[in-house]
Amino acid sequence: MKKSYTPCEKIPTCKILGVNIAAINMEWLVNFLVDHIKSLSGQYICVSNVHTTVMGYEESDYRAILNNSLMSIPDGGPLSTIGRRWGYVKMSRTTGPDLMKEIFELSSNKGYRHYFYGSTESTLKKMRINLLKDYPGLDIVGMYSPPFRPIAAMEDEKIMQQINETKPDFIWVGLGAPKQEKWMAYHKDKINGLMIGVGAGFDYYAENIKRAPLWMQKFNLEWLYRLLQDPKRLFKRYLRTNIKFLWLIKRGV
C-alpha cells in the first residue's frame, strides 16, 4: 500500500531527550484527525509518556520508531509540563483513553469504523459490551487478540488482510510499550487506517483497571494511581525511568 498522507499542516513538536513529542493539546489533535483522517491511512501515532521517552533516549532503534511516527502525543503529564516551560504554551496532556473517548463520541455522526488489535479475548469481549453501551451506534468492524508467541510471516499477512478487508478508519493497538510501537512501525503503509497505540486503554474500557481521579490526573499523578493498582509490575519501571527522566532533564540533556 502506498503512503497516502501528505502533510496538510505542520505538526508542532518539542524534542525531549531526543524524542519528538507533539506540542499539541486535545482540541488541536481531534480537529487534526477529523480534518485529515482519510489521508492518514497507513500511518501510526504513538502515545508517549516518561517511560517510553526514556526508552527512546536509551535505545536508538526505538527512538527512530517514535520519531518516524505521524506524531508522538504527550500522554505523560511531565512531558507537556516541560513543553510549556520551554515555550509551547498551548501544549497539554493528551492521553490515549481520553483520545479514544473523544473519537468515539464523534464516530456515529462521522461514520468512523474501528478495529481493535491487542489484549486478551476476555478483555476485548468486555470492552465491546461497554463501548456499545456507552456509545450506541459505534461501528466496531473487528477485534483481534494476537497470540503471545511470535507470529509467522504468512500468519501476519493473513491478519493484515483481515484488518484491511474491514476498511477501518482507526486501528486501536493495545499491546503495551514497546511492543505496540514496534508492531505499528512494521505495519506502516501496509495496513489501511490510522494505527494508534493506546497501551492500557483497552483495560480501562473493559473496566479491568480504573482511571485515576480527575484531581490526580490534573496534578500529573496518574502514574501513582496505576502504581498502587499494580505495584508488582510497575514499581521497578517507575522507580528507574522516573528518576532517570528527572535527572536527565535537570542536566539539560
TrEMBL record:
A molecular-function term among this protein's GO annotations: hexosyltransferase activity
Pfam families given in the database record: Glyco_tran_WecG
Source organism superkingdom: Bacteria
Keywords from the named record: Glycosyltransferase, Transferase
InterPro entries the UniProt entry points to: WecG_TagA_CpsF (IPR004629)
NCBIfam families with a match to the protein in the record: wecG_tagA_cpsF (TIGR00696)
Protein's name in the database: Glycosyl transferase
Species whose genome carries this gene: Ureibacillus sinduriensis BLB-1 = JCM 15800
